């Protein structure tokens, strides 16, 4: 069986490739290797011959799908709230890049007669007005009308709609919430957990500033649990597509998250809050009833354990950077 993983050198993609590699699968990594992402595979001990692929170019997307049986489509322009939603330019860039990549991958899969596609969608497809309400928990049925989160959310929503029209291919769609763990981005795309861990490690040289008032809530899922869900989704993919939330059903205030990271650091850190900073939605957690019932899946790694593992990895990563 030949498996193509688009975005296979990215954060989630590299962990998926590692799991498939360890299982002896025939894997093709389709990634543009931007921002040094090739290092993710090396950090995880995966040595594969990888060729850079720009999926915005249809000829390259088509070529990489030759002989593919299964495609895990994870490639996307992703990142922090500021990186994706800071202004109209970032919104448009997220939308345009992602819609072009999806269109090329889907067309190539149809033309190459791929048997199965697993698509990384997002919590961002859910209506933004519901995300602005406290204590919001999303089930798959909550997408009753279309008002997603910005350009990124619109691109993911249109990706799902395109897939609903694709006949003859079994499809699994994972609406992914906030995932964290080793190999997570530390640059300008860094999301809340790696950003706060970086500040804790660098403190007091860097202030430990939490964007917003700390009352906004999220659910966080460790990357190995996410990979388990994607693999189970591959087993149960169907047509019409099977859509499931991949996240945690435990909602955590950002204030509590910051306190947990400070505790792990074992430093006497003063936490500061900046309500003027862009924080995105107020609340979003996952109802994972469908994933439990249809996939037999639920997260296994606790937030405390996942944060500890991630903190240790980032600390070691920064140490190696400083030494080199």
Q: Which runs of at least 5 residues are low in confidence (pLDDT < 50)?
A: none
CATH topology-level name: Rossmann fold
Number of domains: 1
| Terminal-residue CA separation | 40 Å
* CATH architecture designation: 3-Layer(aba) Sandwich
| Top CATH class | Alpha Beta
CATH superfamily membership: NAD(P)-binding Rossmann-like Domain
How many β-strand stretches? 14
The DSSP helix count reads 12
Q: Structural class given helices, strands, pairing?
A: alpha/beta
Q: What is the string of SSEs from the N terminus onward?
A: EHEHHEHHEHEHEEHEEEHEEHEEHH
Structural notes for this entry:
This protein has 324 residues and is an alpha/beta fold. 43% of the residues lie in helices and 17% in strands. The protein has helices spanning 11-22, 38-43, 58-64, 81-85, 88-111, 128-131, 150-164, 192-202, 223-236, 254-265, 289-295, 303-323; strands spanning 2-6, 26-30, 70-73, 116-122, 137-138, 170-176, 178-180, 209-211, 217-218, 220-222, 242-246, 252-253, 272-274, 283-286. α1 (11-22) links the parallel β1 and β2. α3 crosses α5 (88-111), α5 packs parallel to α7 and α10 packs across α12. The longest helix is centred in the N-terminal third of the chain and has 24 residues, at 88-111. The protein starts with a strand and ends with a helix. The mean pLDDT is 93.
């Amino acid at each position: 069986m030949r498996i193509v993983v688009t975005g296979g050198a990215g954060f989630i993609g590299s962990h998926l490739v590692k799991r498939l590699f360890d299982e002896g699968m025939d894997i093709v990594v389709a990634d543009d290797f931007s921002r040094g992402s090739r290092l993710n595979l090396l950090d995880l001990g995966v040595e594969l011959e990888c060729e850079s692929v720009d999926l915005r170019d249809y000829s390259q997307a088509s070529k990489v799908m030759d002989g593919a049986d299964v495609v895990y489509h994870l490639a996307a322009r992703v990142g922090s709230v500021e990186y994706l939603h800071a202004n109209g330019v970032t919104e448009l860039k997220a939308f345009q890049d992602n819609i072009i990549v999806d269109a090329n991958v889907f067309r190539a899969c149809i033309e190459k007669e791929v048997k199965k596609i697993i698509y990384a969608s997002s919590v961002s497809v859910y209506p933004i007005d519901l995300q602005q309400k406290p204590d919001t928990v999303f089930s798959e049925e909550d997408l009753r009308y279309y008002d997603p989160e910005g350009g990124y959310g619109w691109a993911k929503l249109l990706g799902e709609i395109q897939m609903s029209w694709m006949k003859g291919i079994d499809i699994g769609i994972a609406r992914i919430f906030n995932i964290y763990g080793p190999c997570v981005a530390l640059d300008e795309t860094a999301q809340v957990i790696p950003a706060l861990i970086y500040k804790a490690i660098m403190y007091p040289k860097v202030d430990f500033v939490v964007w917003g008032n700390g009352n906004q809530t999220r659910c966080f899922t460790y990357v190995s649990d996410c990979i388990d869900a994607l693999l189970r989704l591959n087993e149960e993919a169907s047509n019409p597509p099977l859509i499931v939330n991949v996240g945690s059903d435990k909602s955590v205030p950002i204030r509590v998250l910051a306190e947990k990271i400070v505790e792990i650091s074992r430093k006497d850190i003063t936490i500061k809050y900046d309500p003027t900073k862009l924080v995105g939605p107020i609340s979003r957690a996952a109802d994972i009833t469908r994933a439990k019932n249809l996939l037999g899946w639920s997260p296994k790694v606790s937030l405390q354990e996942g944060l500890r593992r991630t903190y240790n990895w980032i600390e070691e990563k920064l140490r190696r950077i400083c030494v080199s």
